[in-house]
Specification:
Blueprint (H helix, E strand, L loop, with lengths): L3 E12 L2 E2 L1 H8 L20 H6 L2 H17 L7 E6 L4 H11 L8 H7 L3 H10 L5 E4 L5 H16 L3 E7 L6 H4 L6 E8 L8 E8 L9 H9 L6 H8 L4 E6 L5 E8 L2
Parallel strand pairs: 3-4, 3-5
Antiparallel strand pairs: 1-2, 1-6, 1-7, 5-6, 7-9, 8-9
Length: about 270
């Protein structure tokens, strides 16, 4: 794979102890200690009341990170292409559907079923923003963040327009939690642009690598990185939070890694 170059215009982040990018970047830059806490999400914006009542954590999380990243980038929501990348999608709905199928009464709510579809957050995003731009939904198990980042980069470069990555994970209830022990909900959004604009915060260069993945220096954040698939993004986010230049290596597929070089933009 040849080197992919894009500008980063905006970041959105919500997770355990990470309540938005402005708070999180102080922690990730090492200026404040990390304090573990339940993932707190803001009220769902933009969606009409009927849809707002029906949505679960994945949609709320995707809306929170996407709207925050778009605000930081000063981006027009309706003009952004999107890549939604999630490891397990709506775990609560999947759990409820499996419970129903294992019971004597197998009737399923249509709303519960359509919210369990992997690309449901993409649909709600379109309703909320009025966007008619291309949207892709994908999954690559523990490599979901890196796969989403590559997909968004390729789409942005190919189409010559900004593309937003929205990567997010949620947690299964038991008994599925024992098989897939993701401890908490977390989401990251990045607005990537093949063209430099006044909103550019950094230049990213992406290449494949076989080097070891970059760990987090703080023990608790390293545990998050290892336990939540989307938290594989933390080394990159930490570098961005420091507003400097450097490079990190992110886990991808098997022994293959994704190297991201970050160059600050004055």
């Amino acid at each position: 794979m040849s080197e992919l170059k894009l500008y980063l215009d905006g970041v959105g982040l919500f997770g355990p102890g990470l309540s938005g990018w402005e708070q999180a970047k102080v922690v990730l830059a090492g200026r404040q200690p990390y304090v573990a806490a339940i993932t707190a999400l803001p009220a769902v914006e933009k969606l009409p009341p009927a849809e707002r009542r029906r949505v679960g954590i994945p949609v709320k999380l995707a809306m929170a990170i996407g709207l925050e990243a778009a605000r930081h980038a000063g981006a027009d929501l309706a003009s952004l292409a999107t890549v939604f990348s999630s490891t397990e999608a709506d775990c609560d709905n999947i759990h409820a559907i499996l419970e129903a199928l294992a019971s004597s009464d197998r009737a399923l709510s249509p709303t519960r079923f359509h919210n369990a579809v992997h690309n449901a957050p993409s649909g709600y995003w379109g309703i909320a923003t009025g966007s008619m731009q291309p949207s892709t939904s994908l999954n690559a198990y523990d490599a979901t963040f890196a796969a989403g980042l590559l997909e968004a980069a390729v789409q942005g470069i190919s189409n010559g327009q900004a593309c937003m990555l929205l990567a997010y994970d949620t947690a299964f209830p038991e008994p599925m939690h024992s098989l897939r022990p993701i401890p908490a909900a977390m989401g990251v959004a990045l607005v990537l642009n093949p063209c430099r604009t006044a909103a550019a915060r950094a230049l990213l260069k992406l290449t494949l690598s076989d080097a070891d993945a970059t760990p987090m220096p703080q023990d608790e954040l390293e545990r998050l990185r290892q336990c939540i698939p989307v938290a594989r993004s933390l080394p990159l986010l930490a570098l961005l939070a420091q507003a400097g230049s450097g490079s990190v290596v992110l886990e991808y597929l098997g022994s293959l890694r994704l190297r991201v070089e970050v160059r600050s933009v004055d």
